[in-house]
Amino acid sequence: MPDSIPRASVDDAIPLALRRRRSATPPHQPTTIGDVAESLRPPYSTFTTSQKRLIVALITFAATFSPLSSFIFFPAIDALSTSLKVSVAKINLTITSYMIVAGIAPAIVGDMADMTGRRSVYLLAMTIYCAANIGLAVQSTWTALFILRMLQGAGGAATIAIGYGVVSNIASPSERGGFVGTLLLGPNLATAIGPVLGGALAQHPGWRWIFWILAIASGTCLMLITRNLTFYTLFQLLQPKSSKCSDNDEENDQSTALSNGLSQKRFRMPNPLASVEILLAKDSILITLIYCIYYTNFSCLQASMSTLFIKLYGLSQLKAGLVYLPFGLASCLGAYCSGKLMNHDYRATAHDHGIMIDVIGGDNLTTFPIEKTRFRSIWYFIGVSGIATMGYGWSLHAKTHISIPLILQFLVGFSIAITFNICGTLLVDLHPKSPAAAQAANNIVRCSLASIGLGVLELLLNHLGIGWTFTLFGGMICVNSAELLSDGPTAVSY
C-alpha cells in the first residue's frame, strides 16, 4: 500500500455503500474514489482458500481433544476404581478437578494467545496435553491420576478458545460463520465417538489404552501443526488480531506498522482477569448466559444419559455408549448447517440494509448490524431445543419405545449445536482484538453453571422425577433465553 495515502483516511472518505465486491468486478484502472479504495484496501487475510481450509482442519483436529478427554473417560470409571482400588466417588473427584482446570486454563492461555500469537500457544498446549496422557497411561495411583487429569485439562481445554482466535484472524465476517461451523465439527464428533471408544477400550485391551490412544493422537496433531504451518503461516498467526482484519479500520496491518518503525508489544505476563473484564460488557454477558443455559442442559443430559438408559431399558455398558451417537451425530450436522446458515443470514441482512459485502477486505462491523445478523434465525432453534428437551424427559418417564427418546435427543443435539455456534461466532465478532480471551470468559461462566447443574441433577431426578426435571431444563431454555434475547444484543444495539 503506498505510504502517501493512509488507509484510515481513505476508508473514512468512502461511504460503505460504494464498496464493491472485488471478486465480482474485472480489473480496471481506478477512476472514482470507490475504485481507489478498492485498489488500496488490503485483503482481510493473505491466505488462499486452500490454506485457510488446511489451517481450520488442523485447529479442528486440535479442538477435538477437549471434549474427547471427558467423554472417553466416563465408561472407564468403574475399571479405574477397581484397578486403583479406590471408590467411584474418588474417581469422580478427578472429573471435578478436570472441569475446574478446564474452566480456568483458557482464561490464562486465551490472553497469552491474543498477546503472543496462536501457533506458539498451540504447540505449548498440545505438548502439555500429550505429556499428561503419557503419564496417565503409566500411572498406578489415585494421586497421580488426580494431578495428571488436571494437567490434561490445562493442555486440552484451551484449544477451542484458541481456535476461535485463529478463525477470527483468517476469516472475514461474511465467511466466519462457515469456518466456525467447521471448527466445531471436531468437538461435536468427539461427544459421539468418545463414549463408544472409551467403553470398547476399557473392556479390552484395558483402560490404559484410552490414554495411549489420546497420547498418540495428540502427538500426531502436534507433529502436523509443527510441519504443515509454514514460516509464512507462522508469521501470520503469531500476530495478535492485526489490522489485516478490518473489523476496526483504525488498525494497520503488521507489515505496515513495521515499515513505519512502530515497535511491537512488549511481552507481559498473561492476565486471566482480561477474560473477566470482557464479561463486564452487557452484550457479552448476555450472550454468555444464553450459551451457558444451553451448555448446562447439554451437560446434564449427557451426564445422565447412560445411567437412565441402562436403568430403564436394561442396556449393557457398550450399548449404553451407543445411545450417545444420535446426539453426537446431530451435533456434527448442526455444526455444519450453522456455518451455512450464518453465512446466509449475513448476506440476507446486508441485502436488507443495502450494504455491499466486502468479502476480501472484510466489512467494518462498527457500522454493520452484526447482532441482528447472527441472531436472525436463532428463535427457531430455541423453540425446537426447549420442546424436544421436555419431550425427551417425558418419553423416558413413560418408558416409550427407545427410538422416541433417541429421536428427541437428535433434535436437542442439532439445535444446541447451532445455538452454540451462533453465540460463539458473535462473541468473536464483538471482540475482534481478543477473540480467544472472549471465548475463555465464556468458558469460565459455562463451566461454573454446568458444575452447579450437575451438582443438583441427581437431587432433581430423585425428587422431581425424570419428566419434570427435563421440563425444568427445557423451560429454562425457552423462557430465559427468550427473555435475554429480548433485552439483549439485538435490543440494546439496534
What does this protein structure show overall?
This protein has 494 residues and is mainly alpha-helical. The chain has a single domain (49-245, 271-493), classed as Up-down Bundle (Growth Hormone, Chain: A), CATH 1.20.1250. The protein contains 24 helices and no strands. Helix 1 packs antiparallel against helix 2, helix 4 (65-71) runs parallel beside helix 11 (185-203) and helix 18 (325-352) crosses helix 21. This is Major facilitator superfamily domain-containing protein.
Task: Give a quick summary of the entry.
This protein is mostly helical and 494 residues long.
How do the SSEs run, as a string of H and E?
Answer: HHHHHHHHHHHHHHHHHHHHHHHH
Q: Can you tell me the CATH topology? A: Growth Hormone, Chain: A
Mean pLDDT: 74
> Which CATH class applies here?
Mainly Alpha
Portion of residues within helices: over 70%
**CATH-scheme architecture:** Up-down Bundle
3D shape: globular
* Terminal Cα span: 35 Å
Largest sheet: none
Total domains: 1
Cα-atom radius of gyration: 23 Å
Strand content: under 5%
User: In total, how many beta strands?
Assistant: 0
Query: What is the name of the CATH superfamily?
Result: MFS general substrate transporter like domains
Query: Structural class of the secondary structure composition?
Result: mainly alpha
Distinct helical segment count: 24
The low-pLDDT segments are 1-40, 230-235, 237-265, 488-494
Domain Major facilitator superfamily (MFS) profile: 55-492
Transmembrane segments: 54-77, 89-109, 121-138, 144-167, 179-197, 209-235, 316-337, 378-396, 402-428, 440-460
Membrane topology: Multi-pass membrane protein
GO cellular component, one term: plasma membrane
